[in-house]
Design goal:
Blueprint: H1 23-29, H2 38-67, H3 72-108, H4 112-119, H5 128-142, H6 144-156, H7 158-173, E1 191-192, E2 199-204, E3 209-214, H8 215-223, H9 233-244, H10 248-251
Antiparallel strand pairs: 1-2, 2-3
Amino acid sequence: MDSYEGYDEKVPFQDPKKIGQMEIYSALNSLVFFSSNLDFSNQAMNITIVDEFIMDLEYRYLRSKFEETNTLYQSTFLAAQSQMWIFSAYELMRTWREKISQYLKAADNGGLPQILKELQKPIDYENYTIQRRIDEITQLIKNTELVETLRHDLKRTQMLFTQMELLRMSLAKHQMRKRPKAAVLEPTVGYMNRWCGSLEYQINNGQAIICNLSRREIADGLRAIPTMTVPTDEILKSFEAAMRAPTNDEFK
């Protein structure tokens, strides 16, 4: 990354011109049983295309701030687009993870053959979704290594998904993830990130700031999926504790 002109700092975001046009799409389709699902793949295409559009809005917003030409509509439109993108990306990742979790639960309980038997019962019409599930479960039964690959994909994306869930809960429900009774500070307002113009949101539980998250960080996280390593259970447990923050009683 290039140094920020006039400062001895590194820009923490890659130049958009150096980002491949289909990186998010390709990254998501690298996950097991993602590319074979047309609904998943089509939605991945959508958030990839809109990400490019929003990045352009973000950098225009950044320039307009420095040039003092920004308007209220500009920031409002960016906020609306950012939130809709975050919601869509979250729902896509949540749906895929839910599917994989169900497969893993069945595999661990020895229930895959029974699910396959139920799916193979004759019906008087063609159903693409049922046939896809039959194919996927058949693969899992025949290839036990594929089950472990599913487990690894779930773990590799867990920290990113936790961040997405934190942001989605804050924006959509004005609540703390897994802490619905936490009196979070409202409203959840996005402030411009000084490096890329992306709106950055403060995640808090009312007493402590958990972290700041921007839409661009989530997008970059999706792009990084193919290079993610599998974290240990200890690392995931520690990360989860950090993202939940202390309760009011623990503060006292």
